[in-house]
Amino acid sequence: MKSGSNLERVIASGKMAVTAELGPPMSADPHEVIHKAGQLKGFCDAANITDCQTAVVRISSIAAAFIAQREGLEPVMQMTCRDRNRIAMQADLLGAAALGLKNCLCIAGDHQKFGASGKLKGHPGAKNVYDVDTCQLVGIMKKMRDEGLQQGGDKLEVAPKFFIGASWTPMGDPMDFRPYNLKKKVDAGADFIQTQGIYDMELFKSQMEKARNLGLHERTAILAGIIVPKSAMMLKYMDSSVAGVTVPKELIDRMNKAKAAAGDDKKKMRELQEQEGIKIAVELVQQALEIPGIKGVHIQAIEWESAMEPIVKAAGLYPRPVLPAE
Amino acid sequence: MIVGKQKPFDEIWDMVKGFKKVLVYGCNTCVAICHAGGSKEAELLASMLRMRAKQEGLDLLIDSAGIERHCEPEFFEPLDEKVKTYDLILSTACGVGVNFLADRLAGAIPVYPGINTSFYGAVPEAGFFVELCGGCGNCILHLTGGICPIVRCSKSLMNGPCGGTDKGKCEVSSETDCAWFLIVERMKKLGTLEKLFEVQPPRDWSTATHGGPRRISLEHIRAYEAEEEKKATLTGEGK
């Protein structure tokens, strides 16, 4: 075992892994983290704790991950390259490991120029860092863990043992380079991969075939990303405005149909769309798990954590395995 | 070349209004090409400042002048005496010129910036300037098809595109090309795509501004110049 995390043990056991997502609040109050952790606990093997996603200030990933862990939910802390140089990154990794955190996902991070996609003020005038990029951060973390060395070469008395993750946008531009992008992250040392949300399963299958041809599915655990759709509007937005995401028309039509069935009843409109969204998510999970080389799913029920339970149960992924620590 | 843009007029006015004798001092190299700070722009700015002074009833003498370059001492020499008669120099040279002249005047007269020095860029078409180099001190353009990921990628990524590329554009703006999209396409055309498959390790940023102020010393040139000066002194031709 590299880290001994629950997520690593589930993947090592050969069972399909399930990860979820928990977005920390724009608040110094820990209760929202505690509440969300309670909703996710038992329905995933670990939950990603986002690191100031969309470049908006929130409880830091490490602090929120620690709170989640205290609540019995295994966290996957996230670290963006946007906000820290290699000194701060490594200091935070040592601190996180000292707090008992065992999984870390490395990401570039959303650019500060578009805080919350323009919905909030954010900090568009902030100076970003990008001292290292995702591949390099993965490599730094691996060097710390496996060689007990800092990036600069100084020795660590006790190495931080992280199960190292990275993200992959399989359908982003330029699409023919994306399998190689993945390969670079795997070469750098990524133990697991969580993909951008996938709606177009056929396209994803073809990208996965290319990844398999490079042998990547045997060197890392690829978890397919599923973003639970909440409304027809959300699906349309994802299709038109989110990079690397295409939504087949058929799914948007299904959501529109669910919406239309409610007539003018706004409450019912929401409920029917949510029901359809959960149904779609379950189908996507099941389709993704059929793809050769896939080792699990990363289900993102954004600001809708209560959706995890019905999805995981309907997808036949409940109960989650309980594996003894080494 | 160095690309600059004139500061907002009100900001300039706030800088100069407290002085009595101001020289707007242009530079006729890079910043003249980008219509920000050559003799012509210095003259125009001076006349705008005179009009504003008149409107506000202030007794302000504002002249303009221009020289070829503000980054080499010999270009300053012909106007050195004139410059000393002012109590403010509003330089429309790039930041290098402002620093260099301020060092030359050594605190005798203040030198203020009339333009914002923006970037190292090119002029793909008249009136349009684009940033193409960050002056990071450790060029890797041979690895990236001649396209700089340090300044042309919003995140200075070294190992490929992030997840924010959308139809070849950057997540920061739909008008900004994704540098990595361009790099991948260029490398395909060059037949060297496989160069991008290798993981680039963390960079040594000390060659950029992160290692403190940078300087380059060509010892052979400096030794030659010192020798020439010595010879001139010995033969009585020294200055």
Brief overview, please?
Chain A has 326 residues and is α/β, with parallel strands linked by helices. Chain A is built from eleven helices and eight strands. Chain A has a single domain, classed as TIM Barrel (Alpha-Beta Barrel).
Along the chain, the helix and strand elements of chain B come as: EHEHHEHHEHEEEHEEHH
Task: Identify the CATH architecture of the largest domain in chain B.
Answer: 3-Layer(aba) Sandwich
How far do the termini of chain B sit from each other? 34 Å
Instruction: Name the structural class of chain A.
Output: alpha/beta
Overall average pLDDT of chain A: 97
Approximate strand percentage of chain A = 5-15%
Sheet with most strands of chain B: 4 strands, parallel
In the CATH hierarchy, the architecture of chain A is Alpha-Beta Barrel
CATH level 1 name of the largest domain in chain B: Alpha Beta
Radius of gyration of chain B: 23 Å
Q: How far is it from the N-terminal to the C-terminal residue of chain A, by CA?
A: 8 Å
CATH homologous superfamily designation of the largest domain in chain B: PrpR receptor domain-like
Give a structural overview:
The complex is a heterodimer of chains A (326) and B (239). Chain A has helices at 6-13, 31-40, 61-70, 86-98, 134-147, 178-188, 201-213, 232-241, 249-260, 266-290, 308-314, and strands at 17-22, 46-49, 75-80, 103-107, 163-168, 192-197, 221-227, 294-300. Chain A has 326 residues and is an alpha/beta fold. Chain A has one domain: TIM Barrel, CATH 3.20.20.220. In chain A, helix 6 (178-188) packs across helix 7 (201-213). The longest helix of chain A has 25 residues, at 266-290. The mean pLDDT of chain A is 97. Chain B folds into two domains: 2-120, Rossmann fold, CATH 3.40.50.10660; 147-239, no CATH class. Chain B has nine helices and nine strands. A four-stranded parallel β-sheet of chain B has the order 3-2-4-5, with helices on both faces. Chain B has a three-stranded antiparallel β-sheet with strand order 1-6-7. In chain B, helix 6 links the parallel strand 4 (88-91) and strand 5. The A-B interface holds A 81-82, 86, 108-111, 113-114, 128, 130-136, 139-140, 151, 167, 169, 172-174, 177, 180-181, 183-184, 187-188, 196, 243-244 and B 154-168, 171-173, 178, 180-181, 184-185, 193, 196-197, 199-203, 205.
